[in-house]
Amino acid sequence: MTTPLRLGIAGLGTVGVGVVKILQRHPDLILARAGRPVEISAVSARSKDKDRGVRLSDYAWEDNPVDLAKRDDVDVVVELIGGDEGPARELVENAIAAGKDVVTANKALLALHGQDLAETAEAQGHVIRFEAAVAGGIPVVKALTEGLAGNEITRVMGVMNGTCNYILTRMESAGLNYQEVFAEADALGYLEADPTLDVGGIDAAHKLALLASIAYGTKVNFAAMDIEGIERITIEDIQQAADMGYRIKLLGVAQRTGRGLESRMSPCLVPATSPLGQLENATNMVVLEGDAAGQIVLRGAGAGEGPTASAVMSDILDIARGTRVSTFGQPAASLMDVAGATVSAPAAFYLRMALVDKPGALAKIATVLGDAGISIDRMRQYGHQDLAAPVLIVTHKTTRDALNHALEGMESTSVLAGRPVAIRIEEV
Ligand code: HSE
Hints:
The chain has 428 residues and is of the alpha/beta class. The chain has 14 helices and 16 strands. It has helices at 14-25, 27-34, 66-70, 86-97, 107-123, 140-147, 162-174, 178-187, 196-199, 202-216, 235-243, 305-321, 361-371, 400-411; strands at residues 5-10, 38-44, 60-62, 76-79, 101-104, 128-129, 153-159, 226-227, 246-257, 260-271, 283-290, 294-301, 348-356, 376-381, 388-395, 421-425. A hairpin with a 2-residue loop joins strand 9 (246-257) and strand 10. It starts with a strand and ends with a strand. The model has no long low-confidence stretch (mean pLDDT 95). Bound molecules: L-homoserine (HSE). Residues 161-163, 192, 198, 203, 302-303 line the site of L-homoserine (HSE).
């Protein structure tokens, strides 16, 4: 009989229960693929008595998740608690100290502490794997670390927060405003306990920071990311974008430029006919571009029991098979420090603003743009309201710096009725 791989699972929410169900449903398939049984020794969660719809009586129970790390009958700690501090961090640190391998779905923990955790684990010959932390069921970590290992990666893009994509696509299809759809997403249970993680772009930025590290061989640098959420996107923006052949997505982009590593998470206009433009509801999409492979598009469920548990299982199976890929695709100690790009690659921008309706207002805005070296591609005044005139401007390619300079200049013209919205038009 071959030696089983023994798991300690911490966190029995949606994902933890999903992992237990797969292990109970497919023992033969897992044995055949891994060449050894994969068993659960012990589990831990907040409430022992809660009915989770799955049989747990065969497993030892630990009230304190950290105690899983101390058990001799646990080879791999599976951390599905979540959160960048508290019990999740304590468990992972203890697991590494106790010489266990770790599988986690925790993007926040790794985006903030992944470098130190991976270096410590790898120094002792152990691995931390995190397929489930990025884009749920989409095997994007494997795609980058393994499938595209022979490529220089030129760009990583992704819609990696299903809640935001749900909100943006639902606003468009139902003609509803942001607040109405936010309330719907809340009722559907889509929002994180702290919704800012979703709509503020932070959850998606955690994921992009991890992918950028693998793609470019750089230390995870969440602090260097440029992050903007979807809170200021209106139904008008969505409808005007649609009218021009675009859709608005919360899009992450990481690319090396002559100015450093550019990594940003922000609402962007993308062509409605592109794969990213056609992404509906809570689905995720990651686009990877390699110098040899060209463009690879991966699409699938970014959250939920089955998809996320599927990703956790892929890491567990790797460890069971003896496949020990470094956390970020190369030894953590060899990852480079990288400066965040000070200037992003030039792009066209969509600008929406309301102007006070008096002679010369539009001319002043056009002058400010001209003075900042920004050329206007298209312009439209629409749906005239009492004292304010809504105006849309699409610029030719310009830099974010020039645009910021122009936006500052606009503030001092006294013709603005409210703060303008600027959305990058991404070439995808
Ligand atoms: N809140 C996340 C999302 C869940 O909406 O995609 C997965 O991280």
